[in-house]
Amino acid sequence: MSDTLADNKTPPGPSDGLAVLESRRSAAETYGIPLAVLLEITHRCPLQCPYCSNPVELDRGSTELTTGEWKKVLSELAELGVLQIHFSGGEPTARKDIVELVQHASDVGLYSNLITSAVLLTKDKLAALADAGLSHVQISFQGNEPAVADRVAGLKDAHRKKLEVAKWTRELEMPLTVNAVMHRQNLHQLPDIIQMAVDLDADRLEVANVQYYGWALKNRAALMPTIAQIEETSRIVEEAQARLKGTLAIDYVVPDYYALRPKKCMGGWGRQFFNISPAGKVLPCHAAESITGLEFESVRSNHSIAWIWQNSEAFNRYRGTGWMPEPCKSCEFREVDYGGCRCQAFALTGDAGNTDPACALSPRHEEIFKQAERESAASQNRFLYRNFAGGTLETEESRDNRQDNRNGA
Ligand code: SF4
Ligand code: SF4
Q1: 153: which DSSP letter?
Q2: How remote is the CA of residue 257 from the centroid of ligand 2, in Å?
Q3: How far apart (Å, rounded) are the C-alpha atoms in residues 364 and 379?
Q4: How far does the centroid of ligand 2 lie from the alpha carbon of residue 358, in Å?
Q5: What does the DSSP 8-state code read for residue 209?
Q6: 3-state secondary structure of 308
Q7: Which of 113, 178, 241, 301 qualifies as a cystine partner to 197, CB 3.0-4.6 A?
Q8: What pLDDT was estimated at residue 12?
Q9: Sign of dihedral through CA atoms 238, 241, 242, 243?
Q10: 84 forms bridges with which residues in the sheet?
């Protein structure tokens, strides 16, 4: 017999109001379940961003959860007390059932956010999503004009399409977040990207410096900003935050290679976040499958999501502070940053149980920081584009083709 909570109770509907939210909150507190969950419903995507946060080993379409399986997941999450779902990918609209899934999320009382590259959306499709109850749209931008943005995305005409979809989003009266992933080759456009977000009537702008694992680690030499760029970025963001207060909220993620202490990655392993991969793996972080030697449970198993969250070996391995080595073990910040990022520790030291080398107290910090500094100053600008074939290196020819296509050649 399955031990899923959803098997035993009827999910609450959206009309039940405050009482439902309160009962959800207390259910979530019982299990310590996050109130918002990221669903990566597919890894398929028409773009090829060299910093993509998907794993290098992408889940093929044939392994993805079916419509029925995703609906069951949504019902179970609602029953557990989750309030919000982020439909992400890959490109979530690459799934033909995206409207059906958003409708089901609404039916079981979940707020939904679409995290999209936008290039597959038509106005009719976006309107259908709004009618199905989509409550928020987040569009990723690779720059503020086609010459840079389409090259980073690895897709001609992508930037124009994104601007169009952003406009439709606001016409349909849905809130809009602009997500701008920043790196050495587009940081010079930051002031214009901020203005673009204002012109698009976005509510929020995320200025997210690349985090270096997975595809981004493979592209680190082409993406790593210089220290001078980061100092200038911080100045620009602070000035814009003050100037645009009340008009545009700006979130800022610094690249932790240049910080003294690491970020509190995912709020701490297994503390505030989980996501579900296209094939149904329940993960403490979207890059977690890059750590070899950890087995992640699937929603296709006989275990409920609540059981996986609370009891699975992978979630408990780095939960809390008991797993920590020195210098974290006796550090006053151990419950502030929880030792940083496990995926980064694995990628850079070969052991996810080590202190994140982004921390200045890590014995590997200096060596890694110096390497990043050298890479930022070098002129290796070619991208390894993300795809199912393990990546394709940018060539002069592929760059020129995109330029020709843009010019209508
Ligand atoms: S980062 Fe780029 S390639 Fe990766 S899923 Fe998002 S849009 Fe697609
Ligand atoms: S030693 Fe560990 S706990 Fe202390 S600041 Fe560095 S990463 Fe955080």
Answers
A1: H
A2: 14
A3: 25
A4: 9
A5: E
A6: helix
A7: 178
A8: 42
A9: positive
A10: 36, 111
- Contact predicate 38/89, CB 8 Å: no
97-119 per-position pLDDT tens digit: 999 999 999 999 999 999 999 99
| CA distance linking residue 276 with residue 278, whole number of Å | 7
Can you tell me the distance from the alpha carbon of 54 to that of 60, in angstroms, rounded to the nearest whole number?
12
Domain residue spans in the chain?
Answer: 31-399
Q: Compute the distance between CA of residue 226 and CA of residue 55 in angstroms, rounded to an integer.
A: 26
Q: How far apart are the first and last CA of the chain?
A: 62
- What is the model's pLDDT at position 213? 85
Cβ-contact 308, 69 below 8 angstroms? no
Of the candidates 105, 161, 171, 167, which has an alpha carbon nearest to the alpha carbon of residue 133?
105
CA of 324, closest atom in ligand 2 = 2
For residue 327, give the ligand 2 atom closest to its CA.
Answer: 1
In 225-315, at which residue ranges do the beta strands (DSSP E only) sit? 249-253, 275-276, 282-283
Q: Verify whether ligand 2 is closer than 6 Å to residue 46 (CB atom).
A: no
Q: Find the angle CA(88)-CA(92)-CA(95) to the nearest 5 degrees.
A: 150
